[in-house]
Model the fold of this input.
Amino acid sequence: MQTSWTRWNFLKLKEKVCIVTESNVAPIYLKEVCELISSKASKTITFSFEAGEKHKQLKTIEALYEELIINHFDRQDLLIALGGGVVGGYDRICSCNISSRH
Done:
C-alpha cells in the first residue's frame, strides 16, 4: 500500500479533506488513510456510516452535508470515498453540490 500513496502528492496544504466511508471498510483502512492524508491536508475529517442497504437513506446524506457545512467545506476542498457502492454514491452527490456553491 505504501507505494500507491505517492499519488496523494497532488493535495495542497490549504485543502480540507473529508474521507467518507462505512462500517465495514473503516476498521480496516481508515486509520492508515487518514494518517497519510492528514500529513498533506490542512484539515482532515471523517464521515462513517453503518453499512448495508437499510442505511441507504436521505438522513445519512443530510448528516454528511451537515459535517461538510460545519467544517466550512467548499469547492476548493476534497471528498474521498473510501469504499464503493453507497459510499461512492454519497460522495458524488455531496461533492457535486458542494462544488456548485458560490
Summary: The chain has a mean pLDDT of 81. Residues 32 and 72 are 24 Å apart (CA to CA).
